[in-house]
Each structure stands twice: as structure tokens, then as C-alpha cells.
Amino acid sequence: MKRRREPLLWAGIVFLVALLLFAVFGPFLHHNATDPIGPKFQYPSANAWLGTDEIGRDIFARLAYGARISLFIGFTVQLVSLTLGIVVGAVGIYAPKWLASPMLRLTDAMFAFPDILLAILIIAVFGRGTFPVIVALAVTAWPSIARLVRSQLATLKDREFVVASRAMGAPTAYTVIKHVLPQLWGILLAVTMVELAATILAESTLSFLGIGVQEPTPSWGIMINTARAYMQPGAAYNGSPAMLYLVWTSLILAMTIFALNFVGDGLRAILDPKSSNNN
Amino acid sequence: MRLARAILLRLAIGVLSLLFISFVTFVADMAAPGDPALVRAGDKASLQTIARIRHEMGLDKPWPVRYIDFLSKASHLDFGTSYYGTQEPVGNILKRDVPMTARTALSAILLASIVGILLGTAAAVKQNKFTDRGILAISTLGVTIPTFVLAPILVYIYCSQLNQLPQTWQPLADKRAAIAPDWVYLLLPVAVLAARPAALLTRLTRASMIDTLQQEFIRTAIAKGVPRMRLIFRHALRNAILPVITSIGTSFGFLLTGSFVVERFFTLPGVGSETIEAMERGDTPVIQACVILTGAMFIFVNLLVDIILPLLDPRIREAQI
Questions:
Q1: Looking at domain A2-278, which CATH architecture does it have?
Q2: What is this model's ipTM?
């Protein structure tokens, strides 16, 4: 059997490790993210490595801090969403019908509700800021995990090792936690990578719209929104610091989304070679 | 007769979904901090005035009564008046905004469906050849690239060609300044909006077509000498297209998120930009109306998909009771 190499998977992993280091150490390297270090819209230099933004802050530091915000929100949301998704998914299969059935209806209803509308309502309730964004994204993220867990559990339910465990008198909760859920970690890891990309994208989208993370906290979405306001027609804009600002912010966001998708798809291809043939 | 019943059932589900959305919207308003009566009365109002306004707004009634009130008014598109500015009726605001959003979103989903189905078919027919690889690479890019990264790239290309900014909606607000019919100004927004669903639908059509082309009735058709184009479009695509049409409804959800970004980016006066502005000033009636209407648009497109499916496929027509 020919071994499949996954160059995109490895490229993605390398990028994500670099991004993690950037998010952890970047804000300490040179300047902080909130204080102006010089005139606005400077070209990249030894002082401002990627130039300065519209009020003279260091773009490098702001990108690094923005990475921290995005990853923090992304990981928190995924943690909540995985927990909720696994519980609701497992309840859907193993709980008595009076509990499982409404849970299933709720998951379906959440699916039918466009995510942006739910996020808007939640932000309207809690006000704008980092915490409401986490709530809004966690509430919209769990149904897809719940549905995945449910369908996976449904196929595992009657496998021999599960039946054996129950035949030996193990309680349902023990069987599920000890024998069934460990089968899911692989696929859940792959899906979480893709979901993490979706969450980071959604966070940037809300921040871009002005209803997510609020200034002066840096977020890639806010930075892209600022940079695009300085777009101008004509040759003077080409290669100007304002254009570079837009390029850096768009590039780091797009690369992060790509990397996470590559890793997610690559992992899924390794775990389940059949399903990825035609996609 | 069965078909009529199936459509009625779908309609009922659509109405239920709309009720669900309206209920969530209503609850969100109740849960929100702040007293609408205080907002409306202003800072210097006396306690009596506030009590009177609270009574006029119906805020002193129990919530089920208020919800029924809210529903019966919303059913004639009466969402009250804006809290701010000239306290314009929300209905008027919507009349101004909905056409723009409906026009761009519906043209985008139409464009995305056509492009997606054609590209997906082309890719499947040329499976593993250069065309297929190219289309697959572009669609993977299209699924992952954020809308607000794609938009500046396209605007930049447009700018460097025409030496002017397209993203202001000014020409339409002031008809005399317009140098082209208004759909020209919508080309770029619609293209940006359509990109992601088009890419999704391309991938789906490709996968579904590849499955179909391997089936035996296709081999039979080839053996009988059915002309190639007829084979692809009449025999294969007709069978492969069903899951694609189902997912047009889901893609429309993604497109709605995109429409918020696109309206903001190109400063189009639509429901999306109105919602964001209303959120910035905390204008609950406007937010509620926008959310419900956007939800209604989503439900409408999904309803349309559900009605089209049995018309296309006799198997579904038979199966539905």
C-alpha cells in the first residue's frame, strides 16, 4: 500500500506552531500593542518591523496581540462547544426518550437558525466586547459537534465491545466514557480544527462589523476594517504603508484559516481515507 | 394531491421556524439590560411620564400577552418606531432596506447556483485532469477565503483597472451622479457575496456527479450511444443535482453572514448595515425587525428548495406523504 504524504497537513502544522509562538511571545518582543511608537502609516523599518497603523501603533505587536485574542476566543469557544456537543450528542443516544427527543429538536432548531442572527441577538443582550463574542460563538458552534457525536455514537452503539462491556454489567455512563468516547477523539480532533477556523473567522467577522471585540483591544477583523477604510484609487496607493497594513492583516487571517483547514482535512484523510476521495 | 399536502406541510414547518425565530428575538429583548421606557422617555422625564410611557408601550403587561401583541403587530410588519433620531416607524426603515438586501442576496444565490453547478459538472466530467484540478483548487480557496479578505482584493483589482473606487453607494443615492445603470454598481458586491456559496456548490456538484457517472444507467446510456452533452445534462446531472439543490438552502445561511460584511464593506443601504447601525445605538425595535426579516428570507429560500425538490424528482414526490 502506498503511503500517502500530506504536504498541506505539515505546512499547516508548521504555520500553526509558528502562529502560537507569535501569539505567546510576539507581544513581548518589541513594542506593546496600544501605545503609538511614531508617526502614522510608516514603512516597515528596524523600529516598526511591519510599519505603523493609522495612529502610529506598531502593526507587528498588534498582529501578535490579535493572534492571542483570536486563539484565546477560538480555544475557549471550542472547549465549550466540544463539552456541550458531546454531552448533548450522548444524551441523544443514551438518555431516556423524554430527555433525548427535546434535545434532538433543540439541536435541529439551532441548525435552522442562521448563525449570524443568533450571534447578533446574543450580542444585543450582553453588549459588545470579548465575552459576548465568546458566548455568541459557543452557542452557535455546539450543534454541529452534537450532530457528529450523535451519528458516530449511533454506529458504535451495537458494536461487540460495547455490548460486551454492558453484558458484564458496566453502567451506561462508564461504558460510554471508558469505551465509546475514546473511539471519537480522532475524528473530533479533525473536526475541531475546521471548527476552530470557522470560529476565528466568525470572531474576525463580528469584529470587522464593529460588534465583536472592541478597540483598543486589537483584533484582526478590526484591523482589516480600519485598513480598508484607507483604500484609495490611483498609483499612489500601490505599495503605500496603508496598503501594506491591509496586506499584513488579510494575509495573517487568510493563512490561519487555510492552515487550520489543511490540518483538519489532512487529519481526516489519515483517519478515514475513504471519505476524502471525492471531496 | 399528495404534492399539495407535502407543500402545505413545508409551509407549516416554515411558519413554525419563523415563530421560533420571533420568540428567540422577543426573549433576547426581554433579557437585554436597560428599560426601553427609560430610553424612550429620555433623561429628564419624571416618574409619572416614565410610568405612562411604560403603559403605552405595554411593558406593564405579563410577557405572554406582550409576545402575542408583538406577534400580531409583526404579522402586519408593524415593529413599532425606532428609539432614536426622528423615531421613524421601523416599517419605513425596512421598506427602504429590504429591496437592496433581497436583490443582492437573491442574485448572489442564483449566480452561485449556476456557477457552482456548471463548474462542478465540468470538474466531474474531466475528473483528475487539469481542468478538474484547477476547479478544485479554486473552489477550495473560495470556501476558505474570508469575505472581507476577498472583497479588498477584488476592489483593488477593479481600482487599478478603472482608477476609481467602486465601494461607495453614492451614485444611487444621487441619481444624477450615476454614470451607469445601478446594477453595474452591484456587480462587485454580488460577485463577492456569491463566491463562497459558489465554491461550496461546486465541490458538492462535483462529488455528486462523480458518484452518478459511475452508475450503471450511465454506462447503459453510453452503450446506447446517447450524445455526450445529452448524457451529461439530461441523464447524469438530473440525478446528481438533487443533493446540490438541498444544500442551496444551507448555503444561503452562509450568504446571509456574507451580506452583512458586503453591505458594510460596500456601504450598501441594506438590512445588514441597518442592523449593525441599530446595534451601535441600541435600537431594539430595528434590531428585532431586521433579525426576523433576515430569518424570514432564509426560511423562504429553504421553503423554495423544499418545493422545487419534489417537482424535480418523482421519487421524492412519491415518498412524501
A1: Orthogonal Bundle (1.10)
A2: 0.81
